[in-house]
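Long-time lurker. I teach an intro course on protein structure, and each term I like to show students one example going from raw sequence to a predicted 3D structure in token notation. This year I'd like something fresh instead of my usual example. Would anyone be willing to generate the tokens for the chain below so I can use it in lecture? Attribution to the forum is fine with me.
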Amino acid sequence: MKFNPIFAILGFIFGVMGGFIAYFLSGFASELMTNSSIALISGILGLIGIWLFNKDYRVAIAQYIIAGIGVLIGVSLYGVVGCIFYVLAAVVALMEKDKIKPTISQTNNIHYFGNKDNIPQVPVIKSDSRLWIIPLVSFIVILLVGVGGNISHDMEISQKASSLEVSNVAIESEGYSMYKVSCDLKSSMNYKYLQMEVIFYDSNNAIIGKSPLVWNMNNPQKDQIIKVSGTAMTSNSKNVPVRAELYFYDDALNSNPNDAIYVHNVTIN
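-- Reply from a regular --
Happy to contribute to a lecture. Here you go:
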């Protein structure tokens, strides 16, 4: 019985599970769509290693490792278990290399007399160098999915950033470290969701307050002028902000500035 296919199947199952978890979370962070696609494709490609093992255990090991790394890179923490099983499949494949079913062939360069059927049959494990194309193509496919997805994501962010127009920004102190932040927002495209985060800075450019959910709205429509208004806070009343940054997101409860679709800087007088 061979055990490396069992580990490979477990790697596939947990890799796909990690990919689907990322797909679920991608409803809150669109860039995870690319990562989950990498994990799913890597998990599927890893199964090819089971077939490759009976052809050349070395190629199978390479396929398992590429699949494991792809799953791990794709969904990071959610892909750890899948990656571990694929690495185990590679290690076990090396240990089980003697279990490969050999091809029986006639012995070459032997002199015989009489019946040719008496020629000794020798088990031979044939290796086809063309099999290495499979892990190479698998690596290229995973790479293209990652690069293509990142390019697509960057283009989407750029398009969304150019679709928003922010004007008439006002920040007024309400006392007790609270500030009313308001502006007019207009978009040239429909959104399912928008939210605004405000970060305050002092004269030394140090962060003195961060309010991740100052305002939010479901289903803002194209060309609709929205009166945005909400309350943001500094860490304490002694900190006086001189500058603020307004971050707009289209992902619910997202507060990573790198994921903002639009950023607006405001000088506070």
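Some talking points for your students: The first helix runs from residue 4 to 25. Helices lie at 4-25, 32-46, 48-53, 57-75, 80-95, 133-163.
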